[in-house]
Amino acid sequence: MDIATAAPGTEIGSLTADPVTRHMLALYCGASSDHNPIHVDIDFAKAAGMPDVFAHGMLSMAFLGRLLTKLAPQTSLRSFGARFTSITPLGAEISCTAKLVERFEEAGEKRAKLELVAMDRKSNDVKLMGEAVVALR
């Protein structure tokens, strides 16, 4: 769906990531330099009262970022933010969606505001809710 022509309220894109695995979390630790052991060390996670390790919140936000750059070039991104709503366990299948909220003009540039959601397809549990503004070509 084209951002420039879609009606407000229309889902304009989606992305489903691979299921979250221990290997994915270890790779994300290295890529992000976030080496908090609660994400990779089961003994540490259990000592903290968790049943197992869980994904970094920013990993799910990275999935939302992948969706955004699928919809618009990175150079078009004007703002991007999210609120974390629940923990993402191992095995979660994160599905991201973007919905057009509105098109508007600011600073002489046509822009679109998008509503973003990342949820676990297996549990239907919302993990992040956010929004982004992209410039339209």
TrEMBL record:
Residues in coiled coil: none
Q: Which InterPro entries match?
A: HotDog_dom_sf (IPR029069), MaoC-like_dom (IPR002539)
One Pfam family in the UniProt entry: MaoC_dehydratas
Domain MaoC-like: start-end pairs: 6-102
Give the residue range of the signal peptide.
none
Q: By its UniProt entry, which PANTHER family does this protein fall under?
A: (3R)-HYDROXYACYL-ACP DEHYDRATASE SUBUNIT HADB, 3-HYDROXYACYL-THIOESTER DEHYDRATASE HTDX-RELATED
Know the name of this protein? MaoC domain protein dehydratase
